[in-house]
Amino acid sequence: MTDPLIPPRLRDDCFAMPQGVSWVPVEDALARLRAALLPIAGTERLPGRAALGRILAAGAIARRSNPPRPNSAVDGYGFAHAATGEGVQRLSLVKGRAAAGQPFAGVVPPGQAIRILTGAILPDGVDTVVLEEDCATDATTVAFDGPVKPRANTRQAGEDVTEGAEALRAGHRLRPPDLALLAALGIAEVEVYRPLRVGVLSTGDEIVDDPGAAAEPHQIFDANRPMLLALAESWGFAPVDLGHAIDDPTAIAECLDRGAAAADVILTSGGASAGDEDHISVLLRTRGTLSSWRIAMKPGRPLALALWQGTPVFGLPGNPVAALVCALIFARPALSQMAGAGWAEPQAFTVPAAFAKRKKAGRREYLRARLNAEGRAEVFASEGSGRISGLSWATGLVELPDAAAEITPGTPVRYLPFASFGF
Fold first, then answer.
1. Angle, nearest 10°, between helix axes 279-287 and 249-262?
2. What is the DSSP letter of 329?
3. CATH number, domain at 188?
4. Which of 108, 132, 311, 402 could disulfide-pair with 125, CB 3.0 to 4.6 Å?
5. 108 and 223, same domain (yes or no)
6. Left if phi > 0, otherwise alpha if psi is -120 to 50, otherwise beta: which for 255?
7. Mean pLDDT value of segment 242-267
8. Amino acid 84: pLDDT
9. What was the pLDDT predicted at 5?
10. C-alpha to C-alpha distance for 38 and 42, rounded to whole angstroms
11. Looking at residue 176, what is its pLDDT?
12. What is the CATH number of the domain that holds 202?
C-alpha cells in the first residue's frame, strides 16, 4: 500500500534538454524548470499563531463572517432611516446605549434613536447611524440635519469576508496581517507545507572552510556556503549545512548522500561546468542523472541540474557573483514552487540608467546595481565576476535583454531590487 504522506517524486529525466540544444535562453530555461518541478514537501496542521512564514497547503476557509453582524462605524446615534426625511430631524432617545461588546438588548422603535459607539452591533430597529459631531442633544432628544443616506456609517455583516469563503488561497505564505485575518475569521488551525529543507554544499580543493583559519596564497575562503545558507533561511526554508568537500568523488558522494537523506533539494557551488576538473558534474553524470544547461546569460553560464537518489541538485557556479545571480534567477523561483508557494516572479521596475554600456546580442546580462538619489540605476564599477564587494555594494540587479543594446544615461532599464527576490 502506498504511503499517502510521501510526496510525489520528480521524474529521472525531468531536467533533460532536447537533443541538439546547446545554449539555452534564460526564458526557455525558466519555462522548462517551471514545467518540471512540483511541490515536494509534506504537510502538517499548525495553530494560526504559530504559522508565521509558513505556506498554506490548503485554502483557509472562514468559520464566521467579518464582521459577524452589522455594526456601527462611528460614535453617534442610530435609528431607522425610513422614519427620517429632509430638514431638521428630532428623535427621542431610548434609554441605554449600544457599545462594542455590550449590545443593546431591546428594540429601537421607528422615529426614535439610540446612543451607539464604534463597533457596536446595530440593535433591532437601527439601520443608519449619524456621526455625533453632526448632532445636538439634550440627553432625551437628538437633532440633526436631514436627509441622511440610508445605512450611513454602518458596516454590513460579511462585507469584508463571508462565512464559508476562502480567505487565503493555498500557496500563500503567511505574514503578520494574515494571522490577524485568520484570528478574525475564527480559523484556529491551518494546513501548511513543512518548510522545504535546502542542503548547501561547497566543493573544491582551493576552499578553506573557516574564515578565521590560515590560508595559503592558492586558497580562498568559502564565501558561497554562508551566502546560500542565508538565502535559504531568508526565503523561509530550512537550511541544511552539508559542509565542504574536497575534489574527491568519494568525499563529494558522501556529502550528497547525506544531503539526499536530510534535505529536499541540494545546492552545490563549484565544479558545475563540463571540464575534467569539474568533479560535481562528473559525479552527477556517472552516478546520478545530470543535465548540463549552458544558459545564455552573464554571469553564470553553467548550471548543472540533476537528481541524486531522487533528490534534485542545483549545481551553481563556483564564483560567488555568478552563484548569487543563478540562485536568484533560477533557484529562488524553483525552490518556491517546490515548497508549495508557486513560481516566484521577481518584481521589476523600469528606471533611467545612470551609466553607459554597449552590449552585444546573444546573452542576457545582469549587472550589480543600486538606485541613486535621483532614482536612476547606477552599476558597480567593474563587471568582474570575482568582485564580491559589488554584491554588498548593490541593492539589486539591472537586467539587460538578450538582444544587442546601447545604454546611455537616461535610457530606460529594467531594475530588479534584491527585495523582490525575498531578501
1. 70
2. I
3. 3.90.105.10
4. 108
5. no
6. alpha
7. 93
8. 96
9. 57
10. 12
11. 97
12. 3.40.980.10
pLDDT higher than 90, residue 219? no
Shared domain for 79 and 164, answered yes or no, is no
Tell me which residue range forms the domain holding 124.
71-155
Do 52 and 77 share a domain, yes or no?
Answer: no
How many whole angstroms separate alpha carbon 226 and alpha carbon 297?
24
Strands (E) in 180-300, as ranges, are 189-193, 197-203, 207-208, 220-221, 238-245, 265-269, 289-295, 297-298
Before 147, cis peptide (omega within 30)?
A: yes
pLDDT, residue 286, reads 82
Does residue 273 register a pLDDT over 60? no
One domain for residues 125 and 171:
no
Same domain, 49 and 185: yes
Q: Which three cell numbers stand for residue 20?
A: 541538439
End residue of a domain, out of 304, 319, 339: 339
Strand partners, 72: 154
Q: How many domains does the chain have?
A: 4
Q: Which helix (H) or strand (E) holds 190?
A: strand 189-193
- Cβ atoms of 373 and 354 within 8 Å: the answer is no
Q: What whole-number distance in Å separates Cα of residue 260 and Cα of residue 198?
A: 10
Residues 417 and 359 in one domain: yes
Asked if residue 174 is part of any domain, the answer here is yes
Q: What is residue 122's predicted lDDT score, i.e. its pLDDT?
A: 98
What's the angle, vertex CA 406, arms to CA 402 and CA 407, rounded to 5?
100
Pick from 155, 182, 214: which residue ends a domain?
155
Average pLDDT over residues 107-135: 98
Residue in the structure block whose three cell numbers are 541538485: 313
- Domain containing residue 136: CATH number: 2.170.190.11
Q: Quick one: which of 277, 272, 146 has its CA closest to 205?
A: 277
Query: 5: Cβ–Cβ under 8 A, 6 or more apart, which residues?
Result: 42
Q: Is the domain of 274 the same as that of 213? A: yes
| CA pair distance 94, 314, nearest whole angstrom | 72
Q: How far apart are CA 383 and CA 60, in angstroms?
A: 47
pLDDT given at position 17: 63
Kindly state whether residues 264 and 138 are assigned to the same domain: no
Q: How far is CA 253 from CA 22, 203, 244, 256, 291, in A?
A: 27, 11, 12, 5, 18
Q: Nearest CA to 157 among 96, 239, 66, 95?
A: 66
